[in-house]
Design goal:
CATH class of the domain at 176-259 in chain A: Mainly Beta
Low-confidence stretches of chain B: none
Oligomer: heterodimer
CATH class of chain B: Mainly Alpha
Structural class of chain A: alpha+beta
Helix content of chain A: 25-40%
Structural class of chain B: mainly alpha
Order of helices and strands of chain A: HHHEEEEEEEEEEEEEEH
Shape of chain B: globular
Radius of gyration of chain B: 16 Å
Distance between the termini of chain B: 30 Å
Radius of gyration of chain A: 21 Å
Number of domains of chain B: 1
Order of helices and strands of chain B: HHHHHHHH
CATH superfamily of the domain at 176-259 in chain A: Rod shape-determining protein MreC, domain 2
Number of helices of chain A: 4
Largest interface: A-B, 49 and 48 residues
Largest sheet of chain B: none
Largest sheet of chain A: 6 strands, antiparallel, barrel
CATH architecture of chain B: Orthogonal Bundle
C-alpha cells in the first residue's frame, strides 16, 4: 500500500512538473532544494578533485612527448597566420567604418563571462548535460551560451537560483548554426553518430569547399528581430574528415571539438551585457 | 527503528550526492557506475521492500533536485527498484551469497529499460542503441565491481536482522 502511494506521488510530481511552466511551484521547490544541496555537491566535487587531477596528470605525462612535437608545429603555423590576420583585421575595421556596418552582438566584446565549476552530471547514457554552480543569482539565464577556454560547449537549458543545467554540444538535442572559417560554408553542428565526443557538420551542400584542418565557428546569424542564441565567432572545432555520396545532397563532415567534453571542470557562461538587445 | 531509518537515510543522501557530483562523471569505456542504485540494492536486500521503496523514493528525489531533472522521474524508477529488490531479498535471495550481485545485475538492466521507456513517453532523449548495446555491459560491470565494497559498508551500518515473521510462519507450518 505504501509503495503504491509512493508511486502515485512520483507520478503526480512527474505529471505536474512536466506540464507547469519554468516558474511553477514545483520548479521553485526544485530550485530551493538545489540551493540546499549546492554546498554538499560542491564539497563532494572538491573532495574528488585530487583523484581526477591524478588521473588527468598520468594521461598528460604519457602523451606529453607527442603533444609537444604537435604543438611546436602548430606554433610555427599560427605565427604565419597571425601576421595575415592582423592585416585582414585592420582592413576589416576600415571597411566597416566606411560602410557604417550594423552588427549583432559579437563575442567576446558584448558578453560578460560568469565562471562556474561543474558540480553535477546527468546519466551519460541518456543525455550529455552538466550542472554548473551558477544560476539566476549570478545573472545566468535560459539559453545563455557556455564556453571553455578552448571553445563552445553548449547552452543553459534549465536554471535555478544557484545552479544551471547545461546541454552540451554532444547531446542529441543540440544543434548550432556554424561556419567554416576559411570557405564560409554554412551548416549545422550536431552530435556525432557514435557515443563519443565527435561532432558532425551537417547541411553543408556539395558545392561548398571544406577540407580537413578547416576551423568551424559559430555563425551568429541575424534576420530582422530574430538572431541565433550563439554570438558569431566562438570556435567549435576542426574538420577531421570530409566525404560525399552521389545519392546525398549534403557533404558528410566530421568535426573534432576544441573543448574536451570528457574532462570538463569549469566553464564560462556568456551573459549578454545588454540583455535587451541580445534576447530573442 | 528510528536510528535505522536515520542511518539508511544518511547513507542514501551521501550516495545521491556522490552520484550527482562525482560518479556520473566517471566514464570507463563508455560505461558509468551508479553508486546510488548499488547502495539502494544493498539497503533493500538488508531491510526489505518497505525500506527499499522509501530509500528509492528519497534517493531519486535528491537526484532529480541535484541535477535539475524532471521531478519524479528518478524517484519513480528507484521506488520500484527498491521495492522489487526488497521482495527478492525476503524470498528467493534469502541466505544466498550471490544475491547482491544477481540483484544489481537485474536491477541495472530493468532500471535502464524503465528509464528508456519513461524518457520516450516524455519525449526526452532515449537512445536505446547507446544505452542497451554500446554502454550497458560496461555500466553493469562497474556496478558489479562497486557492489562488493558498498554492500560491505552498508551491512556494517545496517546489520542483517533475523526475519521474525518468517520464523513464526515456518514454525506454524512445520
Amino acid at each position: 500500500m505504501v509503495v503504491v502511494g509512493l508511486v502515485i506521488v512520483s507520478l503526480a510530481l512527474l505529471s505536474v512538473y512536466f506540464r507547469e511552466s519554468s516558474g511553477g511551484a514545483l520548479h521553485r521547490l526544485q530550485s530551493t532544494g538545489a540551493s540546499v544541496l549546492h554546498p554538499f555537491q560542491v564539497a563532494a566535487e572538491r573532495a574528488a578533485q585530487p583523484f581526477e587531477d591524478a588521473v588527468g596528470w598520468t594521461g598528460d605525462v604519457l602523451g606529453a612527448k607527442s603533444e609537444n612535437d604537435k604543438l611546436q608545429d602548430e606554433i610555427d603555423r599560427l605565427r604565419q597566420q597571425l601576421v595575415q590576420n592582423q592585416t585582414a583585421a585592420r582592413q576589416n575595421a576600415e571597411l566597416r567604418r566606411l560602410l557604417r556596418f550594423r552588427d549583432g552582438p559579437t563575442f567576446p566584446r558584448d558578453y560578460a563571462g560568469v565562471a562556474a565549476r561543474i558540480i553535477g552530471r546527468t546519466p551519460g547514457q541518456f543525455e550529455q548535460q552538466v550542472v554548473v554552480a551558477a544560476g539566476t543569482n549570478n545573472g545566468v539565464g535560459l539559453n545563455d551560451p557556455v564556453v571553455t577556454a578552448e571553445g563552445l560547449i553548449g547552452k543553459v537549458t534549465r536554471v535555478s537560483r544557484r545552479s544551471a543545467r547545461v546541454t552540451l554540444l554532444t547531446d542529441e538535442t543540440s544543434a548550432v548554426s556554424a561556419l567554416d572559417l576559411k570557405s564560409n560554408a554554412a551548416g549545422i553542428i550536431r552530435h556525432g553518430l557514435s557515443s563519443g565526443g565527435s561532432l558532425v557538420f551537417d547541411r553543408v551542400t556539395k558545392e561548398n569547399v571544406v577540407h580537413p584542418g578547416h576551423v568551424v565557428i559559430t555563425a551568429g546569424w541575424r534576420s530582422g528581430k530574430l538572431a541565433s542564441i550563439y554570438p558569431r565567432g566562438i570556435p567549435i572545432g576542426i574538420v577531421t574528415s570530409v566525404g560525399q555520396l552521389d545519392t546525398d545532397i549534403y557533404k558528410q563532415i566530421e568535426v573534432d571539438p576544441f573543448a574536451d567534453f570528457s574532462s570538463l571542470d569549469s566553464v564560462l557562461v556568456l551573459v549578454a551585457k545588454d540583455k535587451k538587445s541580445s534576447r530573442r | 527503528m528510528i536510528v535505522d531509518a536515520v542511518k539508511a537515510g544518511a547513507v542514501v543522501f551521501v550516495a545521491a550526492v556522490l552520484q550527482a557530483s562525482v560518479f556520473a562523471g566517471i566514464v570507463v569505456l563508455g560505461g558509468t557506475p551508479d553508486i546510488l542504485l548499488v547502495t539502494l540494492v544493498a539497503i533493500a536486500l538488508l531491510r526489505g521492500p518497505m525500506v527499499g521503496a522509501f530509500a528509492g523514493f528519497f534517493g531519486g528525489l535528491l537526484i532529480d533536485i541535484a541535477i535539475l531533472e524532471t521531478l519524479g522521474m528518478t524517484s519513480l524508477l528507484l521506488t520500484l527498484a527498491g521495492y522489487w529488490t526488497g521482495r527478492y531479498g525476503e524470498t528467493t535471495a534469502s541466505g544466498r551469497r550471490y544475491a547482491p550481485y544477481l540483484a544489481i545485475a537485474a536491477v541495472t538492466f530493468l532500471y535502464l529499460l524503465g528509464a528508456l521507456a519513461l524518457r520516450f513517453m516524455l519525449a526526452e532523449p532515449a537512445p536505446a542503441r547507446v544505452v542497451l548495446l554500446e554502454t550497458f555491459f560496461q555500466s553493469l560491470a562497474l556496478n558489479l565491481l562497486l557492489m562488493w565494497p558498498v554492500y560491505g559498508i552498508v551491512r556494517r551500518l545496517l546489520p542483517r536482522r533475523e526475519p521474525a515473521s518468517f520464523a513464526a510462519e515456518v514454525a506454524a507450518h512445520g
